[in-house]
Fold each of these.
Amino acid sequence: MEFDNIHCISSPDAMDEDEGARITHPFMKPSAAAAAAGRAGGNAAGGGGGGVAGAAAAPATSVHELLECPVCTNSMYPPIHQCQNGHTLCSTCKSRVHNRCPTCRQELGDIRCLALEKVAESLELPCKYYSLGCPEIFPYYSKLKHEAQCNFRPYTCPYAGSECSVVGDIPFLVTHLRDDHKVDMHTGCTFNHRYVKSNPREVENATWMLTVFHCFGQYFCLHFEAFQLGMAPVYMAFLRFMGDEADARNYSYSLEVGANGRKMVWEGTPRSIRDSHRKVRDSHDGLIIQRNMALFFSGGDRKELKLRVTGRIWKEEQSAEAGACMPNLCS
Ligand SMILES: [Zn+2]
Ligand SMILES: [Zn+2]
Ligand SMILES: [Zn+2]
Ligand SMILES: [Zn+2]
C-alpha cells in the first residue's frame, strides 16, 4: 500500500481556502502506524480483562474453579462432561480427546455432569468489567452474553488500516490515537478539509485517513478513504462516534463536497466505534463519491484529486426515535 502521496490540507472552519495558513500532513505515516502496531501487544490498556472482581465473588470462588475446564481452562457451559471417575471436561475439549479422559486416561463415555450444571445455574457472579464500572451481577449462564454487550467493556482502537489491538476507555484511546498513530486532533463542531492526491489514477484499495474532532464534550472520528467498490474506485467519508451506539444517536452530522456549481451532501447519524471501520464502510453509511465525480469536483486537468469536504456535527434535541432501528443494522 502506498500512503505517502495523499495529503490532507485542513484549514480552520469558516476560513476560505485561499486565506490563512494551511496545514499539510500525510495521510498516514507508515512508521507511526508500525510503531503503534508494535506497541499494541504490551499496551492492552484500561484494565480491560479483569477476571472476576474479588470481593463479590469470594464465596463462589471454589465453585467457580470447579467450573473451569481442567484442560482448556475456559468456563464450562452445558453440556459439561465427566469421566467415570468424575473428572470434568468441557464439550469442546471432549470432542478433541478421542474418548480418553485427559486426567486419568480412562475411557470417557458419554456422561454428563448434571450436578455441576445445576450448581452453575445457582451461581451469581459480577460482570467481568466490574473494575471498569459495571455494577451488574448475573446468573452464571447469562453472564457471558451480557459481557459481550456490556456498556463498560473496553473499546478497541478506531484507527483503521493497521491491525491495532489496543483497547481501553475513550480518554485512553484519544491519547493513544494522538501519540501512537499521530492522528490529527481538531476542536470544534465544524470542519473544512481538503483531500489532495497527486495521482488519482492509482486508487489503491483502502487508502484512508482519520481525523479526530472534539466537540460537545465528545470525540468523533472522521474517516476519509479511497477503495474499490466492485470495479469502480470511489471515495468515502463518514463519521464515527467515540462512545456507545445509544449515545451516538444524540448526534447528527453533515458532509458536503462540491465544486463547479455542483455539490453532494450527506446527512447522517454517526456510527459508534463499536461498529468496526470496515463494517461501516461496507454498509456504505456515509458520503460516497464516484471517481469521475471526484475528478470533476477537483476541476482542472484531472491530474490531481482535490476534494474539499466541509462538515458539521450537531447535537439532536431529545431524540424521538430512541430505540429506533438504524438502516444497515436491522437486517
Ligand atoms: Zn475445555
Ligand atoms: Zn478421568
Ligand atoms: Zn457488565
Ligand atoms: Zn491503535
Amino acid sequence: MAALETLIEALRRLPGVGQKSAQRMAYHLLQHDREGAQVLSRALAGAASDIGHCERCHTFSEAALCPICADEQRDARLLCVVETPADQAALERTGSFRGYYFVLLGRVSPLDGIGARQIGAEQLLARAQDGRVEEVILATSFTAEGEATAHVLGEALRSRQLRSTRLARGVPVGSELEYVDLGTIAHALVDRR
Ligand SMILES: [Zn+2]
C-alpha cells in the first residue's frame, strides 16, 4: 500500500518518532480516527503555508511583525536573544520579561561549519544598535553549543560597546531552555549577570 508507506515515512520526519511509533500513529488514524487525520492534514497544510518569520525578531509569525514586536508597550531597552521560537515561547510564558526578543537561526557549531554569520549575528548586531537597546540578554541554552554561541555573540557585542548579560546559572547544565521549568527560567532571568 503505497499511501500507507508514504504516511509512515512522513510521520518519521517528526523528532523522536521511529519506525514503530510512526506505524502505530498511521494505523491509529486510519483505524480509529479518520476525522482526526483530516484535521491534522488541514492544520499541517495551513501552518506550513501561512506561518512565516517576523521581520524584526525572526520568530514564527503570520504577520510581518509578530504580536510581541508589534506591542509598543514593551521595554525597548532590553533585547533577549534565544536560539529558537520554542525557547522564546518558554521565556514569554514565565511572564517575567517585558523587553523584546531576537530569535537566532540555530546555534554555532564549528564542526558543522555553522558560525556567527549562519545564525544571524549580523542582523542581531544591527538590531542591537537601533539606538534604544541598552542591554542584550544572551538566553541561549546551557549546552556546549549554546555556551559557545553566547560567547561568540558576547564578544561581538562587546567589540561594539554594547552591554550583554547571560542568564544566571540555576538552569541545569546541558539544558534546552524549552524543557526547563518556568520558575527556574524566571529566576535565571532576574539573576542575570
Ligand atoms: Zn517579532
Amino acid sequence: MKSLLVVFDFDHTIVDDNTDLIVQKLLSSDKITDDVKKLHRTDGWTAYMQEIFRLLHKSGVTHSEIHDAVIHTPATPGMAELIQFLYSQNMEVIIVSDANSVFIKDWLCSSSLAHAVERVFTNPASYDKDGCLNIEMYHFQDFCELSTKNLCKGHILDLYIEERASIGVTFSQIAYVGDGRNDLCPCLRLSEKDLVFPREGFQLDKLIRDMQDQKDMRMKAKVHVWKTGSDIIRTLSDYWHQNKIDSEH
Ligand SMILES: [Mg+2]
C-alpha cells in the first residue's frame, strides 16, 4: 500500500501561468477573429485551441518557438521542490489537466520532473508531418455538470484509483492540488481523511469559500489553502508527524 496519492492540476498550479494563453500570444491578436473567439463558447476550449494551433502554423510559428514558450513558463514557487519531495518520499504523483500532452511533457522534461510523475491525464496532442499541432478532447462526457464536456477530472480520478487497486496499489490518503473551476469535481469526490489544496485567491478557493458560506456540506476532505509549494510540504509533514504520534499511542 502506498500512503499518499497526490493529484495536481497543471496551469496556474504546477506552472505559474496558463500555457495555452502563453502559446496563443505567439499569434498577433488581429488573427484571432470573432469567429475564432466564438469557437470557445460553441465548441469548447479544445476546439478553440485547435484553431489557434492551426493559425500559428499558418502564420509560420514553428514547433521550436512553441516549445520554447512552453518550457520557459515559470514554475509556481515551491512546486518543483514539492514534486521532488513527494518523489523522494515514495508518494505517487499524477497530473490531470485541460492543457495538452505535448505542453505538459515538454515542460516536465525541461524541468527534470518527468521521472517524478506517474501518469498524466490530459487532452492528447501531437505535431503532424507539416509541423501543425493537433489536439483532441480527452473524452466526451455528459454526466457531470461541474465539468466541461472534454474533461471530468473527478471521473478520471475515480477510474485511476480503481485501476491502481486492480493491480494491488491502494492509497491511505489522497491530496488534490489545484486552482480552477474544473478542479472542484474531483475535490468533492474525496473523503474526510483526504486533503484539498486550493491555490489562495484563485477560482477553486473562491468556490470552496462560497460553499462554506452557504453551509454547503458536499466537501468532505480537509481544505488547506496555499500560496507556494512549501506551504503544502509543511501541511503534509504536519499530518505525517501527527499520524506518527497517534500511531505510537
Ligand atoms: Mg489550473
